[in-house]
Amino acid sequence: MSRRRDEVPEEEDQEMEEDLVSLQFDEPLSWRAGRPIATGELLRRLEKLSKELVDMDQETVDKESLAGVAKELASHNLLAHREGGVKAFSAACLVDILKLCAPEAPFTPKQLKEIFSLFVNTILPALWDPTNAYNTQHKYVLTSLAEVKSILLINDVSNSEELLLQLFSSFFDGISGSSKATSGEQVAKDVEFHMTDILVTLVEESPSLPPAVLDVIMAQFLRAAPPGGHRDKADSNGKQTTLLPKEEPEAYVMAKTVCNSCPEKMARYVGQYFSEVIMDVSGNSGHANGQKDDDDSDDEDNTAAGPSESDFKELRKAHQLLRELWRAAPAVLPNVIPQVDTELSTDNVQLRLLATETLGDMISGIGAAGPPPSPVLDPTAYPPLKLNDETIDHPAISILNTPISPLSFAQTHSQAFHNFVGRRNDKSPLIRAAWTTAVGYIISTSAGNIGLSREDESVFVNGLRDKLNDSDEKVRLAAVKAIETFSFRDIVLKLAATGGVNKEGSVLSTLTDRCRDKRPSVRVEAMALLGKLWAVGSGELAAGQEAVSSALSGIPSRIFNTFYANDLELNVLLERVVFECLVPLSFPPPPKAKGTKSSNGNSQSQSATDAAAYDQDRVRVERILLLVKDLDSNAKRAFNALQARQPQFSKVLENLVLQCDAFNGGNPEKNEDRIKHNLKKTIQYLSQFLPDPVKVEADLHSFASWHDRRCYQLIKFAVSAESDFKTMHRAVKEFVKRVQGSPKPHMLDTLLPLLYRSSYIMFNKSHLSAYMDFSKSDKDGLGAAAQEITTEISQTNPDLFKTHVGQLCKDLVDGAPTSDHANDLAMVETLKACSSYSKRYPDELPDDRKFVQALMSYALNGQPAKVAKYAVNVMVARKDEKSMVTATDLLQRVLKDWNYDSPHFLTRLAAVSQLELLAHKVTADANDQIIDTVLDNVLLKVRTDAKDSDPEWIADSELDDECQIKSWALKLVVNRLRGNRDLEEARELAQPVFKLLRSLLKQQGELSKTKNTPKHHKARLRLLAGQLFLKLCISKHFEELFSHADFNLLAFLTQDQSAMVRRRFVEKLQKYLVQNKLRPRFYTIIFLTAFEPDTGFKNQIETWIRSRARFYRDAKQNVMEATMGRLISLLAHHPDYGTEVEDLVDHARYLLYYVSNVVTETNLGMIVKYAERVKQTRDGISPEQSENLYVVSDLAQSVLRKWQDKKNWSFQAYSGKIGLPIGLYTALPSHDVAQEIAEKQYLPEGLDEQLDDLLRSLDKKKKRKSIDERADGQPAQKKVRSVVPKASAKPKTPKAAKASKKSAKSSKSSEKKKSAASSSAADSADRRRSGRSRNNSSYIERDSSEDDEDMLEGVAEWEYYDDKGEIIENENDDSSELSEPEEEEPEAASDDDKMEAPEEEEDEDEDELSDIEEDEEEAPAPPPPKTNGRKGRAAATSPPSSKIKSLVSRPAVKASVSKSKSPTAAASKSKPKPAPKTRAPSTRATRSRRSAAAEETQDEEEDEE
């Protein structure tokens, strides 16, 4: 028809008609019903038509010529033809018609709908099969629709929403499933491109987008979620995420392209999409502005009126989508982020939680697939990781869980970012925990790898640190787990950028505090993480990498210091971390096969060698030495204590195996009752060392009933000293597997800790040769640690040394000194190890002439002097005739040129001192010569001029020869006494020795009457005198000679002006008391430390007192309770005693110090009875001063009553009998006198109010330490805050005058002794002494037999401290609670009785204690020129001439107690006395932990006694 019209053109259009091209195709495409065109023919015609249409151009085609074909092509017969080829060619022709006729389609609406239905439902879906015979036509349709944009005509179709939905769904589903097509062929990229182009065109050009279509687009982003749909199922350890594809799904990419191609329109659509979900759900949950209804304000978790579970399910899905949209197309979210921001302030906790999690993930670029798998910190890897090593991708890593943030959230949505940061202080712990987790990812991913500003990163790092101290355990646990998401490199460079473990307030330092957390879940995670961190960084630590060393070197110390928390569960955790993280049993792994490529060599400090060459034992030893090298003094003692108890535990475990074997699975062959009883007793004994004794007993009984003989054999292998490391390790591994496969695998919870404690893991015979090699070579600076371990093994595990002692002796011979050639200092520890070994196995050391001569050389010419002591120990160890001959020969050589100026006099003096102790008969004939030289030429002479600038104390390593010589001379005098086995002669010799020591204490270390001794010499000598007094009192026959006056002098050494004198004396006293070497009366001395100004040291003492009190309570001994009677007598005879209120308040502080650390609700009645009983006696020392006793007795009772009220305890009178020490107290003359004393109240008026103030000040101090030490409140800020003192009371003039008189007397006495140059110092000292040395009012009498019975026969049931007195195990101090976020109370760091003296006695000439000082809190400085206000406090301050700051014995406290004696006080006397000023609390909870067992790191020394 078109042609016929064209045949009759009009004249005026002739030119145009010549340019137009008409369609030439003239074959019919339609047919009548019942007469169809054959399919083949129809295909031929359609193909012909298609070829012609393809060649036509829109500009030149005669559109009217297309009308007929268009009508036929739109017929139902073709569009619904059953042959796919017909439809394919028809569709190809139709898209050409649409192209040529554009913009007007020559179809009716109905036809258009059928056409696009064909396209959408048939043609385009057929593209998913590239092998289709008509794939070319299908692609042609797709290309035309995309390029011509004729796809837009779909919007003109009625009910186009259905077609659009089908189109979008088909494209997304098809492209995502094309890779799984049966043909195996993937859709070509051009198809994917054109499909995407079509979708973009539809979104961009369409006036609107149906909601269902938008749902389909959004759903594509959830294809990133892990299988199962919900992101919560994506396990952070990578187990689930291994199912994630390695690349983004095609449909995901297509949807992302659509969103990014038309961001403005999609932003509008997406905003509407999310508003329907978010605002609808949020609107049901509370006010969007964050305000709450009054009736709901106190119930934050009340969600009853909030959205339903189904609503939340939809909301969670929407938020999951948001995360992925931010990763894929952040430009479409500007209208959505404010809605999420609004959720942050809603009342509903679940909504806030969801919003917090979502914003956190968006900031860090985490999508629906969840976070990336956490980095693996493998402590067993070898060679260890390097800081600059490239991070190896986790096997589960995928593009979908790789954090990506295309834009900086902080910059694009600053308000929402700011509000998110503010959630750190949300009052719900759930939100704080979620915030903490999110922050961990934000920092570790650098905000989705786009980077954080320095300020923002600092805010997040500080926030993470603060959350480690949160009051809620869930938040603290989240903080620890957040750090686990960091790689080793990120931890060092990001978290440790502002400070490592040793820097107060840093993230890592705060993390170490969590090792002592009250909650097991928190401390387990924290300690395991720290252990792995240190192990992974051990290579860089060994290499001395500065950043790693600064960040991580303090970790082992902080881990081992948890030993002092007195918590059985924590002790088990400590051992597991040590043997599974710090130095795992499986470290290092077996060497790789030859030819295997490796970047490290046979030691951690080497670089590249063949890994197959490394020695496993040597590598392991190097890790252990690196660990020990990094330990501080307290941690080192804990480490040694753990190893020291191993031999004893191994014996107990071997005994358990024997008992189990005899038990025979519950059917003993004979002696059934005895066998069952022994087994039960052994199990009960072991159960006291592990948490949950009931479970422990059940597990061990189950193990015995299981009766697996192979397990018995494996235990024997593991705990045998003869087993090498590989044998032990294999035994442990097999044992674990067998128990896990047993009927009751939970037994392993009990058996494994016991096996760890009993096996030779750290100190194994396989490692000894490597330890000795390191001690000689000092390779990588590990020599000192190797020497310490070698010495420790010789003392605690001498059996291991049997095969190596020959090598040690050979080394001693080779390194022996001569008169002009000094020995190597490394020989000191070697000789010390031999000395320790010789005590247990004296006959196994060589006695050949060469070795003896070497020992002689050390004793005559060795350096330092203590090598002479060790040499003499080895020399006389056999105690046979030959050794005595050798000792005689040595003495003769020493005395050959015996004078102060002779060569090596110091060394020879030390040798003679030890000979006096161990070979008294050898020195007997020469004693006169020896003593004359020691006294006249050494002790009574001063060769070093005293200067005003002399320090009060200097370190051991800096001591001059004269001071060392005097110290050894004093030891010689005492050793002569100790070595004498004739008791009568010893008592006779004791008098001058006691007089010498007494003089040193009285004169503050001064013996010369003609010349002043330097201050640091005097401090050393009076300290040594006090320690030697204690040592002498260990022997009963010397203790009986110890007079009351001597006891007084000794007690007041705890208030010496020198801080180091006080510290070392108290530590020695504590050590002897723990070892049960001193009688109970010596506990009284410890309570004179009530005014100790060094807060850290005082906390340590208090912790120790509580631990001892707990020990005696558990042992059913009333030792600490009976001390009250002695303490009252001591305070009544104290030089500072006075009846005025301020003096009695000071005495009350002593009593309160005792009460706060000893008294419990259970023993309160007994202690009150002791205090009351005093008023039924007279003073046995000075009867005329009995009233002093009654005053202090009333004062003690008053303090006890007030303490009872403060604690809200019920009082139960003690009905048993008690006794007071005979000699301290005597009976009253008559009943009338007793009645009169009992009825009289001896306390002055006004004292009661002052005592109330004193107790209140104690409460304030504790509150300042931590707002919430034991409750779940916000943690206290870690700042030292001093209490502002109240106005001072008006000075009491008479008291000041009295003080002045005493001062004048002291000054006058001093002038008689000293020259004018020293008069000011002596005046100051005597004034501080307050005449104690002049008025020796004693307060102690001999212990009664009842007192003797009060003493415990041994210390702790766990009898195996080594000969050093290391009490290792189990005694939970009831106040030693584990820390909440802030453990400022000393209880949090109590050292347990097992560790009260985990050290060997140390010669005072060693500087082992000096490094502890760096950990101590600096004591509060005393107020400027005020006097200390005490008549008799030793050492208020150093003399004005001294330039060294001296820690005073009580000034810091007394200076702030109402100083009525001070001329500066200016308040009315009638006004209530202000409460004593409390010291500023420690800034760190770990301070008490670090100093809990601070003693000198032992010199195996002296206890040849």
Summarize the structure.
This protein is an all-alpha fold. The protein is 54% helix and 0% strand.
Helix/strand layout:
Blueprint: H1 2-7, H2 14-19, H3 39-55, H4 67-73, H5 76-79, H6 84-101, H7 109-123, H8 135-148, H9 160-177, H10 189-205, H11 211-221, H12 250-261, H13 263-283, H14 309-328, H15 337-343, H16 349-364, H17 409-412, H18 414-422, H19 429-444, H20 446-449, H21 454-467, H22 473-484, H23 488-495, H24 507-513, H25 520-536, H26 538-543, H27 546-552, H28 555-560, H29 568-582, H30 616-629, H31 633-644, H32 646-663, H33 672-687, H34 693-706, H35 709-719, H36 725-740, H37 748-758, H38 768-777, H39 783-796, H40 805-814, H41 826-840, H42 849-861, H43 866-875, H44 881-896, H45 905-918, H46 920-923, H47 927-939, H48 961-979, H49 983-1002, H50 1015-1033, H51 1036-1039, H52 1044-1051, H53 1059-1074, H54 1083-1086, H55 1095-1114, H56 1119-1132, H57 1141-1158, H58 1164-1174, E1 1177-1179, H59 1186-1207, E2 1225-1227, H60 1231-1239, H61 1247-1265, H62 1293-1313, H63 1319-1329, H64 1345-1350, H65 1451-1454, H66 1486-1490
Helix pairs in contact: 3-6, 6-7, 6-8, 7-9, 8-10, 9-11, 9-12, 10-12, 11-12, 13-14, 14-16, 15-18, 16-19, 19-21, 19-22, 21-24, 22-25, 25-29, 30-39, 32-33, 32-35, 32-37, 33-34, 34-37, 35-36, 38-39, 39-41, 40-41, 40-42, 41-43, 42-43, 42-44, 43-45, 45-48, 47-48, 48-49, 48-50, 49-50, 50-53, 53-55, ...
